Amino acid sequence: MSRRKQISLILTGIFLLSISWGLLILAKTLLKTNENNNLHYLPENVSFAVRLDGRELAEKTLFSVFIESKDEEILEMIQTLLKEKTAEDSEFSNLGIDYLSDILLFRMNIENRTVSGILFNVSNPGLFKKGLEDGPAAYACAQDVGIVLFDDATHPIGNDHMMTYADQMLRKPTETIEKLEIVHHQSGTFFEIFSNGSLFNDNGKIERSDIHFGLDNRMLFINGKLLLNPDRSDKITYLRKTLKPNGFHMSGTQLPVSLNDSLKKWLAPYNVNLPEIQTLSLNLRGTKIINHSSGFFVIPQMELYIKTSQSFDIEKLLCDKKLKAYFDYEKDSNCIRFQDERLYYHQVSSTEFYIGVTPKPIWKKHTGKELLIVNGNLKPLMKIEGGGLMTSFLEMIPEYRASKQLSDHIDRFELTMRRSGNKHALLQGKMVFGDDYHPMNEIIKFLLTGEFVQ
Predict the structure, then answer these.
(1) Cα separations (Å) of 231 from 42, 197, 205, 228, 237?
(2) 441: closest CA among 68, 36, 182, 82?
(3) Per-residue pLDDT tens over the stretch 51-75
(4) Among 176-185, 322-331, 413-422, which stretch is predicted with the lowest mean pLDDT?
(5) Is 289 in contact with 387 (CB distance < 8 Å)?
(6) What is the model's pTM?
(7) Beta strands in 309-339 (DSSP E)
(8) What is the phi/psi pair of residue 319, to 5°?
(9) Would you say 399 and 438 are in contact if contact means Cβ atoms under 8 Å apart?
(10) Phi–psi pair at 115, nearest 5 degrees
(11) Distances in Å between the alpha carbon of 97 and those of 102, 182, 188, 449?
(12) For residue 444, which of 215, 201, 273 has the smallest C-alpha distance?
């Protein structure tokens, strides 16, 4: 190699290294934010609050998309979106919001109505007010903090009153945020939720939830602490018997009241009174769509075990003439048939029953204090066999196509909730992506492909 070529290679290396350092310095400069003064105006009586760390999220996205993965597909998708947003026939307005800072979403009660709001850090108060003045939401801005309030849709308070409330909320700082655990809980966290109650059920057994979402290498994680209601914590039941995990698995005891109510309403026309479900265990392997004389039939490839609070006869339910006519199935001694597809069933005990694609499920016993177990990969949720035209139609739906692509790139999903001591339950989970996939890239592709971002 000639001396001139060696010098040329050295200079090229120095030039590329300088560009790399320049990009990092530029990114650090761009990601500098104002102080998060909006945190000090979170109302005192919030029942629900979400903190989105814009700076942390932007740093993770910038590093993943532009430096770590160099994903050309996602770069083209982002470029296409930006072109559409900045086209002459497209409306693109600057609201003067500092998106590279914390954004607070909350829900509260005003005049016995449920009102939602957002607190921003504002870089340009004039643009903030101008961008919202013709909109339906109430708003106010004080120096570098802006607030937007959304009225109760069912029983509105009225925009004039809402504007007054918005203005009052920015007159005096509060100490609410200091009492919550949703600020910089741990490294990598960019999304945190506080709920005065629970995100997982509405039966009053959980008083408060603090949930944290973040990114660690090739996985998204979730950590949470749930405060138990001392008056009802003795009524909490634990998993004692479940199906052995296969495919996508979910087992839980603390089911939402709304789920039990919905099932009761659905079964009401068949003169069936379904007792409260105490334990549900599900294995899902996919879904089959069969062409039936009366149309398309969806047959979940599942194993389902249910334990109820009182006696329940699964045989009596399946013998109901209205139910048989509605789903057009034939009943044998141990299964129901949809043409060549079979779902087997049996009464495990007076309060337990099973229905599924396998005649003899495999059981697993538990002796700990688990309240919820979810594991496996997510592919079975989007796996659909047969159907022909129906399957082709689903592939045309952006939301389905995006969800299927995302599930195909996830290796496994794990989520557990277990009691810890007398006062709390702990929530832990992770979504692990394949070696060739970067979590932030896949989330962005999901949002763009599914057209959730317009």
Answers:
(1) 29, 14, 8, 9, 14
(2) 68
(3) 988 877 777 766 556 555 566 676 6
(4) 176-185
(5) yes
(6) 0.81
(7) 330-331, 335-338
(8) -85, -10
(9) no
(10) -120, 140
(11) 11, 21, 23, 26
(12) 215
